[in-house]
Write a structure and sequence with these properties.
This protein is α/β, with parallel strands linked by helices. The protein has twelve helices and seven strands.
Length: 280
Amino acid sequence: MYSPRQVAKAIGVSEASLKRWCDRGLLPVQRTAGGHRRISKRDVLAFVRERQQDLHDPTVLGLPETTTKAQATHAPEALIAMLLADDENALRGLFTSWFLAGRPMTTLFDEGLSPAFHRLGAMWQSGAIEVYQERRSVELCRRALYELTLLMPEPAADAPLALGAGLQNDPYELANLMVEATLREMGWQAETLGTDLPGDTIAAAVATRRPRLLWLSVAGVADEAAFVQAVDTIWQACLEHKTRLAMGGRGLSEALRGKIRYTVYCTQISDLVDFLRSTA
C-alpha cells in the first residue's frame, strides 16, 4: 500500500492532482486507522494501464527502473540476451511494461518467450550453452511470470474458474504459467495445480473445484499408454462436470492426439484465447 505522495511521485503528477483523482473515485483508496489514504499497487497499475500513461519513477512502487513502454520489446533475441545475462530486473521490467502498455499477453508469449526457449533448448543440445543456463532461464521466467500475475487486478468473485496442470513425468511448468497469466489478464480465475501430477488427482480437482476450463500442457510423453489412460480419466471427469478440456504442447504428436479425447487442441496460447472468445 502506498501514500498519495508516493503514487504521485511514481506517476509524475502533483500530490494535489492525485488526491483529487482519489476523491473523484478514479483511484480506489483505503483508509488507515488515522484516516490517511492508502492505494494498492494493483490499483495504481490498473489506473496507469487504463490511461495509457508511463511510470515516471517505477522504483517507488518496487518495480524495476526499466519498467517503461520503450522497453516493451518481445523480440526473441532480446529475451535470450536478458536470460543468458541473468538480468532478472530487465525481464521483470519487460513483463510489467508489456502489461502496462495494454499489449496482448499472447503476442509476448507466442512470438517472444516460446520461440526464445525453443532456441535456448537448441543451443543447449548443440553445446552452445550449458544446461544450467537453460534451467536458470526457466527459473527467471517463472519468477517474473508469478510477479506479473500479482500485479494484475483481482478477478471478480463470479469470474469463471480455469485450472491448469502437467501430467506425471512432465515437469515443465513454464507454458502453464504463461496460460495462467493470459487468462488472468482476460479476467478469469486461473490457477495452476502444478506439474508431474497423476491423472486421477487432476480428475479429482475437476470434480471438487468444478472449473469451466481445464488446460493441460504436454512438453513430453514418457509412457504413451499411461498418458492415454490418464487423459481418459481426466476426460471422463470433464464430461461429468461440464468442464472444457484444452490440450497443447510440443509433446502432442498428431498420432498421439488421435488416441485421446479433448475439447480443443491449441498449437499456441492465442488459439486458446480465440476458442474461449468464440464460445463465451
